[in-house]
Amino acid sequence: MDDWTTLGYLASAVLFILGLKRLSRPRTAVRGNQFGATGMLIAIVVTLTDNAILGFEWIIAGLVLGTAVGAVLAVRVQMTAMPELVALFNGFGGGASVLVAAASYLEAADLAADTPRLSAAAGLAALIGAVTFTGSLIAFGKLQESLRWSGFKGMQVVSVAGVAAAVVFGVLMVADAGNPLWIWLMVAVAAVLGVLVVSPIGGADMPVVIALLNSLSGMAAVAAGFVLDNSLLIIAGSLVGASGLILTQIMCVAMNRSLLAVMFSPAPSGAGGPSADDVYAGKVRSTSADDVAMLLEAAERVAIVPGYGLAVAQAQHAVRDLARRLEDRGARVVFGIHPVAGRMPGHMNVLLAEAEIGYEQLVEMDDINPTFEQTDVTIVLGANDVVNPIARTDPSSPIAGMPILDVDKSGVVVVIKRSLSPGFAGIPNPLFAADNSMMLFGDGREAVVSITKALQQI
Amino acid sequence: MDLLIAVTLFVLAVFLGVELITKVPPTLHTPLMSGSNAISGITIVGALVAAGADHSTFTAVLGFAAVTLAMINVVGGFLVTHRMLGMFGPKRRRDTPAQDRAASSAEGAGDR
Hints:
By secondary structure, chain A is of the alpha/beta class. Chain A has helices at about 5-25, 30-50, 55-75, 80-110, 115-145, 155-175, 180-200, 205-230, 230-255, 260-265, 275-280, 290-300, 310, 315-330, 345-355, 365-370, 390-395, 445-455; strands at about 300-305, 330-335, 360-365, 375-380, 410-415, 435-440. In chain A, helix 6 (about 155-175) packs antiparallel against helix 7 (about 180-200).
């Protein structure tokens, strides 16, 4: 690697840093993303002029194919499918790191140029990268709801055995470095581990998994950087690894669960608490779109709290129309966003932004909670556990201590939902039976559309 | 590169990443994730060398697959982030001063 290459890599690293910094401010985010892309372009061009590259056929083929597939995916994806796409991209990044590590390891072994350090780093890259790859594919399948398999009994024992095997193969990669068998065994066992670890996790825990896989895809690049002795891979990978870890942490705090709890005791059971019949019997009030419209007609402050149901029903545009109509009537409308609403960090924000709702109308949990008492009507749309007041009151509940949106403190709560079925935590929600609550049963989008129509006729 | 220097770079970059990302408003969590994900496609650098090193056909094929995967990650990641960010932003149809004031205070809370 000559000095120009090193300087080019330095420029890329600086652009990545500036890009990430700008990505964290709404006003500068677009520029930040462009900085990142420019950094990447510089890195690619600088690498292509490197002396180590002798033939360009495979490179050009890969660049063209990858660009085409990536561009098509990026342009055609629906905003509701964003979590799936990000999961898929995470996986591809991890997969690429595995292949890079394998290629350099095999080449070094052929040339007898391998060192214990290179072998160990290749082992790590293969392990992290393959876990990221298959884990992301499983997450992708789960998010698409095409995959419902959540593992088998005794899976954790198999996982532990898998981790032990990975350690053994890692040691063998160093001790018996000339033998290509070990790295492939490492890749195989890591691939199985990725499946085993992600399979049992589902539903509302997905934001944590996606954030973690994001972090791992960065760490895989770091490991590949140690294999190649490449400072840019180490720096860029670490930045991504750190940002993914922070998002993971934010998601865990927002659910009041530790990362270990999410990964190893998934799907909290609703057993032990009051049954749905006890909570709901005779106390649930069902309402109609016309009645909700009457309520809204008189409301001055309206809050809308969306959950994953908004994405499922593709209701973001219908909600925008309702909000605009209310604003035309002089009401103030805000959206209360729980950090783990949806299937990935920021999922609701993206959907509402797609419907051209400005980010200044999207209010974070800590900022909106004190305002619910002055809110006349709160509409809960496809959210459940994140508005369950039992998190505040019942210490034995599976969601005890989880920060929630205090919608029950507003004047009237209208819950739009298909049925009284429980959310991810599997527990009944006393909010639905509260004196100031009413249920509007039905599809989220259709319900909102009929409310808007009814408002027009008043 | 000396191993200790590499480890130093790694540790410092992790700290830098933590400092850079800590104060991101939730609105930007998804674009941040897809944007940083695109940056993790930096493996492309290693993939290009593997694909072009002309060592053996097998390693070249591995390199080709790596270039393809990394490039999907890079191009798709930056493009989709750009698309998403294009939808964000203050969008108001009309100027209602009361709303503006409330809006800027809510935004300020998320912004800092």
